């Protein structure tokens, strides 16, 4: 096997991991209204199938991040994918054969959330370990594009599987997991660690040092990532409900419509990751501009109630999100060395999951309150976060010799990110 082909297979394996994670929530969004009818549950209870997955993942992610630093990325990813598949299988079995399946579906979803905790954040850390410089940014762009592709694909796949039986998406999880699992096991080869992992006390002290010196911009970046995921899943929840209740659109047609804004986000994520390289100034500009696009889109949506003009304006926010996320991925992944990268990227993944978890229930409450208020509040949030990024993320050029570069700042060989 040629080196180029081997590298391509590694990227394919890494890219499959966030795609699998994304299926965990997005594939269920089209079936939530049907789940309410079939199980006799409320809209809020249905939304909890998204929330329990995300909260479980958010809690477990930092723990698995530390374990990936302590041991290896692959030793966490493989069992995590396996648990993810088992959780989906349990939910499918419960829906098919149990008299009161809701509680068991929730248990299965919690197991899936635990498995998801060892997927995308660890894949980001693994990317930081295996690739450097511009290639690292490009692969992280692919990771985010894969995440976006999963969001595009999953409503369609979820709708198709639901044509067989409403709980079909639960049965689909183990199949998709198996593909990613095989790719990871056979094609991802980690570099041997040069030294033993530090004891937990020293490890924690190092993390405190990282957050002491770079905490302000780092937590701002975390908030930005959470906000992006919060708005994505909140709007998808609103759109899914609107398509079914106002337009009587369900099944594959609904999945295809839900996929439109996500397709633009995926394309933008891939393009952004390919173009940003190691240019931190460009990353910051794209983050701020992306949030301005999101704000303009959400604020304008109050004037559009017809479906296709609404979708067209919503696409603008998806493009903005596609600009923001790859830049955040590159900044956060490059902020620390390999010995603590797993925890830092996992904490980022954790707050992203919290954003996902908060989206459906909060938007459900906002929908009951006021459509106009919902969109204006969302626009206000993205504007505020965009301003925080403008004010708290500071970048400046700093050229240093190769010998002076530390492993903790591989992304910053020509640029150093500082806080004032």
UniProtKB/TrEMBL annotation:
Cross-referenced InterPro entries: MFS, MFS_dom, MFS_Efflux_Transporters, MFS_trans_sf, Tet-R_TetA/multi-R_MdtG-like
Major facilitator superfamily (MFS) profile domain: residues covered: 10-397
Alphabetic keyword roster: Cell membrane, Membrane, Transmembrane, Transmembrane helix, Transport
Pfam families: MFS_1
Keyword Transmembrane: yes
PROSITE patterns given in the database record: MFS
Keyword Membrane: yes
Membrane topology summary: Multi-pass membrane protein
Subcellular location: Cell membrane
Regions that span the bilayer: 9-32, 44-64, 76-97, 171-188, 217-239, 255-274, 286-304, 310-331, 343-363, 375-393
PANTHER family in the cross-refs: CHLORAMPHENICOL EFFLUX PUMP RV0191 (PTHR43124:SF3), PURINE EFFLUX PUMP PBUE (PTHR43124)
Name recorded for this polypeptide: MFS transporter
């Amino acid at each position: 096997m040629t080196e180029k082909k081997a590298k391509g297979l590694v990227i394919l394996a890494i890219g499959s991991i966030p795609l699998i994670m994304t299926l965990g929530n997005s594939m269920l969004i089209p079936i939530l209204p049907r789940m309410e009818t079939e199980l006799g549950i409320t809209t809020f209870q249905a939304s909890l199938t998204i929330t329990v997955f995300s909260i479980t993942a958010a809690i477990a992610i930092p723990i698995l991040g530390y374990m990936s630093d302590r041991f290896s990325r692959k030793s966490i990813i493989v069992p995590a994918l396996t648990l993810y598949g088992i959780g989906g299988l349990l939910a499918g079995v419960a829906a098919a054969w149990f008299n009161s399946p809701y509680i068991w579906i929730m248990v299965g979803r919690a197991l899936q959330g635990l498995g998801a905790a060892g997927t995308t954040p660890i894949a980001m850390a693994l990317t930081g370990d295996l690739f450097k410089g511009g290639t690292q940014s490009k692969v992280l762009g692919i990771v985010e594009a894969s995440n976006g592709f999963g969001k595009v694909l999953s409503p369609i796949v979820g709708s198709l599987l639901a044509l067989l039986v409403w709980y079909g998406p639960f049965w689909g999880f183990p199949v998709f997991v198996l593909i990613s699992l095989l790719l990871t096991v056979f094609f991802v080869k980690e570099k041997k660690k040069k030294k033993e992992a530090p004891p937990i006390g020293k490890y924690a002290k190092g993390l405190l040092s990282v957050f002491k010196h770079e905490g302000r911009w780092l937590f701002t970046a975390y908030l930005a990532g959470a906000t992006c995921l919060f708005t994505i899943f909140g709007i998808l929840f609103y759109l899914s409900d609107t398509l079914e209740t106002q337009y009587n659109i369900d099944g594959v047609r609904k999945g295809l419509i839900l996929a439109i804004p996500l397709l633009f986000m995926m394309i933008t994520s891939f393009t952004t990751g390919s173009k940003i390289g190691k240019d931190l100034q460009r990353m910051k500009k794209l983050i701020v501009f992306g949030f301005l696009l999101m704000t303009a889109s959400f604020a304008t949506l109050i004037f559009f109630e017809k479906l296709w003009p609404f979708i067209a304006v919503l696409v603008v926010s998806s493009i903005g999100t596609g600009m923001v996320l790859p830049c955040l991925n590159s900044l956060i992944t490059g902020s620390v060395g390999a010995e603590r990268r797993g925890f830092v990227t996992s904490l980022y993944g954790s707050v992203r999951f919290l954003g996902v978890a908060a989206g459906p229930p909060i938007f459900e409450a906002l929908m009951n309150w006021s459509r106009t208020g919902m969109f204006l509040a969302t626009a206000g949030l993205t504007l505020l976060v965009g301003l925080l990024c403008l004010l708290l993320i500071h970048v400046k050029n700093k050229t240093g010799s190769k010998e002076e570069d530390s492993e903790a700042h591989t992304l910053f060989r020509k640029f150093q990110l500082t806080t004032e």
